[in-house]
């Protein structure tokens, strides 16, 4: 049985008529960049997320970059980011000649550990970028408390977590000063190319971000600030407007798939429960835990990725590939061990939880249209490998 990591075709087939019509409508309007389709998309996303403002931008990376620029962060500033995330989280900080200051992740969720933030704050620290990794919120109460105490901005990297809810029901991304999302096709809400979104509840920084999205001229061609081209196009907005009403039902399917995985791993004797952080004879596979499961809110985890941890991870991945089961490693090298960040002066052993995650994590297929039979097959093959 072939099990792909992600298959976008069934989703397209189920919405083909609406999507095709939306694309043709844009073609007929010949209005391609920003414009009415993007205005409508921004209104719908702001409402859906419960944010005052939403700004469509060119990618998730640019959402982060533009947020930092709008907050005036640059040379001489420090920004605290988790060492374990997708490269963009730290890359954007370094691109502005600011210094990424790294923090470890906590072992259950692999999100930034709030206990590893405060002692890294200096006079130069301007912001914290928590990442809602794999589709579940970071510990925002603790992070916001630290930020308020030290007068720091918070930019939420919600690229993997649009529509996920914090324990109080707020959408991730709407808690800090800026929230950033990605619509890269493989994310839980994907467009037909690159796209991203920024949300904020703050009038002043929204205004700066809005003008910096188009080079920073205000009025047009008169510049007090230097922005860039961070525009989203109307075709992407049209696609996203068709898909947004289905997002919650897709998240529900992802959660159901996660439950099928969990039960199968337990039934095969590979794990006792979710959220274990150490291997032993009854927990050869460490299962992801939805830590806000009992919050009473539906989207406590939207499983952009389903991440297990196993001891012989690379061998298992090769074994699965031989059995036509795709899997992926997010992320094999934390930032503190990346060549390009040598100049930051970190070394192996500095962030043990992140190193453990980087060495042992494996992403299994979790997309909404995956069948129970496919999941059972994946777990059977993992059991076969582990028990060898
Ligand atoms: C995907 C991703 C980004 C970047 O988004 P793009 O749209 O690909 O630029 C940033 N941060 C995280 C955590 C991501 O997963």
What characterizes the major β-sheet?
Answer: 7 strands, mixed
- How many strands? 10
Distance between the ends = 21 Å
Q: Determine the number of helices (DSSP H or I, runs of at least 4 residues).
A: 11
N-to-C series of helices and strands = HHEHEHEEHEEEHHHEEHHEH
Q: In terms of structural class, how would the helical and strand content be classed? A: alpha/beta
Query: How much strand?
Result: 5-15%
Domain count, please report it.
Answer: 2
Percentage of residues in helical conformation: 25-40%
- What is the third-level CATH name, the topology of the largest domain? Aspartate Aminotransferase, domain 2
* Shape annotation: globular
CATH class membership of the largest domain? Alpha Beta
**Average pLDDT for all residues:** 97
CATH superfamily placement of the largest domain: Type I PLP-dependent aspartate aminotransferase-like (Major domain)
CA radius of gyration is 21 Å
Ligands in the model, by name, code or SMILES, are: pyridoxal-5'-phosphate
User: Oligomeric status of the shown chains?
Assistant: single chain
What order do the strands of the largest sheet run in, or round the barrel if closed?
Answer: 1-7-6-5-4-2-3
């Amino acid at each position: 049985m072939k099990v792909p990591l992600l298959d976008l075709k069934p989703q397209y087939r189920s919405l083909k008529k609406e999507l095709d019509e939306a694309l043709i409508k844009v073609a007929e309007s010949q209005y391609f960049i920003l414009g009415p389709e993007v205005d409508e998309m921004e209104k719908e996303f702001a409402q859906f997320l419960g944010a005052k403002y939403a700004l469509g931008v060119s990618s998730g990376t640019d959402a982060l970059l533009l947020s930092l620029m709008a907050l005036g962060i640059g040379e001489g500033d420090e920004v605290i980011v988790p060492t374990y995330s997708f490269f963009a989280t730290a890359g954007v900080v370094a691109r502005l000649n600011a210094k990424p200051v790294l923090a470890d992740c906590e072992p259950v969720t692999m999100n930034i550990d709030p206990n590893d933030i405060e002692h890294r704050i200096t006079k130069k620290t301007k912001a914290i970028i928590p990442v809602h990794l794999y589709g579940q919120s970071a510990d925002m109460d603790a992070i916001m408390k630290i930020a308020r105490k030290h007068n720091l901005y918070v930019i939420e990297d919600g690229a993997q977590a649009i529509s996920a809810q914090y324990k109080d029901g707020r959408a991730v991304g709407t808690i800090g000063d800026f929230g950033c999302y990605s619509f890269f096709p493989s994310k839980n809400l994907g467009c037909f190319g690159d796209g991203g979104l920024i949300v904020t509840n703050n009038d002043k920084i929204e205004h700066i971000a809005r003008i910096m999205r188009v080079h920073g001229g205000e009025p047009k061609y008169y510049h007090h600030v230097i922005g860039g081209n961070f525009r989203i196009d109307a075709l992407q907005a049209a696609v996203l407007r068709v898909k947004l009403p289905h997002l919650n039902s897709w998240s529900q399917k992802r959660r159901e798939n996660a439950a099928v995985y969990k039960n199968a791993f337990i039934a095969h004797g590979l794990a006792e429960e979710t959220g274990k952080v150490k291997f032993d004879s009854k927990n050869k596979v460490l299962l992801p835990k939805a830590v806000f499961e009992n919050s009473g809110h539906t989207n406590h985890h939207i499983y952009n990725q389903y991440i297990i941890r196993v001891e012989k991870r690379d061998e298992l991945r090769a074994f699965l590939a031989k059995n036509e089961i795709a899997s992926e490693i997010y992320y094999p090298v934390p930032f503190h061990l990346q060549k390009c960040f040598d100049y930051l002066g970190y070394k192996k052993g500095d962030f043990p939880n992140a190193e453990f995650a980087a060495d042992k994590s494996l992403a299994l297929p979790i997309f909404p249209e995956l069948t129970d039979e496919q999941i059972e097959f994946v777990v059977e093959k993992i059991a076969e490998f582990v028990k060898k």
